[in-house]
User: Which sequence fits this backbone?
DNA sequence: TTGTATGCGTTATCAA
DNA sequence: TTGATAACGCATACAA
């Protein structure tokens, strides 16, 4: 009764599991079983099927495969920061490296979302099994949604200390504190902080580490500067406006990003302030350019490839194990001494 | 005869198109139609359905939706370069910005592949409808596969001049040539090139532009340097080994990346060579740091956000229109004069 | 204009 | 150990 008029188009016919089954003389179910390494299949049959697969150059359809499973096989890397802030920052390239290496070993694909609207789409349309949030800020509009969501997620980078989220984070607090201690160790008593924007959780951590160290060492409080963003021009601007108002200078600055430090360096140069003679500077992140600057920038370094990798691993555990893992992992940072730091003049 | 024993688990029940249909008192087909803005649906019914959708907070399943269409709704951004080379390079952040903005307006999601194996997976498993190749190199193993593939694809960045691929590319050749002309214009006769690795198509373009300009202007041929990669340390090393061999120096260098130029700058500083008094330097790419260097780096600038955007747009046209578009679009670059260039000494 | 039925490519449940 | 057959969530040709 069925009228099956198959239009045999000359176009490339996508080979599916049924073709393989036919060719191997078995049922689609059996093909599916060898595809999934199901042990309940006769070794001989298995070989026959594998041969058919190879001969037809058959490749399983990823999405179709996951449909019955109620999964997608995709993970998302999500941020709402503009690309200059995130991609131009070598910090993240390390993180990506770690994530990439883990995903390479896993069966998961990676989706990328550069804007809140893209991200919402990913979440809403059940396109991903889990989410890696990166470069989160306090007022990011989607934050609550994600936390309340059932979708497994981890955040990389600073986040609020108390939450139900799993976070992997450089030790901003400890890193800045050790920079202060380093500077104090070579004689500085008046140390300032050039910090990033207040809505960045990182800024909060920086400040916490800074103030705690100042207190512990019983150093003078000289106030601190705040940049609008973490980029060069923001460091430049922050110092310029501070200096042009005739405010007093510390003998050293701890700066919360190398990019910021480069801007500050430029500003001091323009004003004829000598680094490190008149002013010492410690950056944060130790970007590749740091050591090639003139003078080379003293900075706070951490190996963050593992951080990205561990975040990815944990997320995968969460989605595969269908269990929630809540923890906060902090990665150590340490001062790399170079040419922008020296004992204060007098 | 059907034995339907629905296990009513207490877990969250994913709401599907059938639930909406039931709630609205229509068939699933009709719901599907309003989802796809099919005009052949009664306005009143449309409202009812929309209300049901809202009430149930229904979200269409992305993959399931595309399965019948024979599509995936995903595009891939692919590279085999290591993350430091690609992500740490502000050049790419511009490109990403363009791509992101276009995808935001489109219904497509973006997948990211950082390694050849991930990429192969994406292609094989029919997970994406199109591919954006970026930072391609001559011996990249997957290149032939992609070109022979039926999957729509575009490449961003230099590629071989003759091919069936659609490519969007900065005008490396013209940019370098204009830098040579600029230097000649302020009096330089002995101009050198510090180029990137030979397997980069960009290097070929640079060289082409350089040599052509030298010939046109009838300038002296002083040979050129080759760096192993486009990063700071490679520029540093290239100059060091050249200089320590006591070879003669030109009065100016055109350098094929700002990162390379920063390394070179560092090396000259270490050797006591004054820039721009003893040696002029022109970088390429005009990264944000360039103008904050001391002295600020003269560089070759181009606005490449549009390049990324146009590449994405074209790819989308290809997959939506199921047609092949072959073209080669080149984006203009121009010299931004800053502090590392000056007339030669004598 | 709407509903029915079928198919998309695979997994999974149940018999055999 | 294997094979029908029913999902998975949706789109669409065809019928009504």
Assistant:
């Amino acid at each position: 009764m069925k009228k099956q008029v198959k239009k045999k188009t000359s176009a490339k016919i996508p080979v599916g599991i049924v073709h393989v089954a036919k060719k191997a003389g078995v049922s689609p179910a059996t093909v599916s079983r060898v595809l999934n390494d199901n042990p309940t299949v006769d070794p001989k049959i298995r070989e026959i099927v594998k041969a058919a697969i190879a001969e037809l150059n058959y490749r399983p359809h990823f999405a179709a495969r996951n449909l019955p499973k109620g999964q997608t096989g995709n993970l998302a890397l999500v941020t709402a920061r503009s690309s200059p802030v995130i991609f131009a920052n070598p910090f993240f390239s390390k993180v990506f490296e770690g994530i990439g290496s883990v995903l390479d070993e896993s069966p998961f694909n990676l989706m990328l979302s550069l804007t809140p609207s893209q991200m919402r789409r990913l979440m809403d349309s059940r396109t991903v099994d889990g989410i890696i949030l990166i470069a989160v800020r306090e007022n990011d509009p989607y934050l609550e949604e994600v936390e309340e969501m059932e979708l497994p997620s981890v955040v990389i980078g600073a986040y609020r200390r108390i939450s139900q989220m799993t976070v992997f984070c450089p030790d901003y607090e400890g890193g800045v504190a050790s920079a202060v201690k380093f500077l104090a160790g070579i004689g500085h008593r008046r140390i300032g902080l050039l910090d990033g924007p207040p809505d960045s959780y990182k800024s909060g951590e920086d400040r916490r580490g800074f103030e705690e160290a100042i207190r512990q060492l019983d150093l003078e409080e000289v106030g601190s500067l705040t940049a609008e963003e973490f980029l060069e021009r923001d460091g430049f601007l922050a110092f310029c406006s501070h200096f042009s108002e005739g405010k007093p200078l510390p003998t050293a600055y701890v700066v919360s990003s190398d990019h910021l430090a480069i801007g500050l360096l430029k500003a001091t140069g323009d004003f004829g302030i000598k680094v490190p003679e008149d002013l010492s500077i410690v950056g944060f992140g130790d970007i590749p350019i740091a050591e090639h600057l003139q003078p080379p920038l003293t900075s706070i370094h951490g190996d963050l490839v593992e951080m990205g990798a561990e975040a990815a691993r944990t997320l995968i555990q969460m989605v595969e194990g269908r269990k929630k893992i809540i923890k906060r992992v902090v990665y150590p940072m340490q001062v790399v001494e170079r040419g922008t730091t020296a004992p204060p003049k007098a």
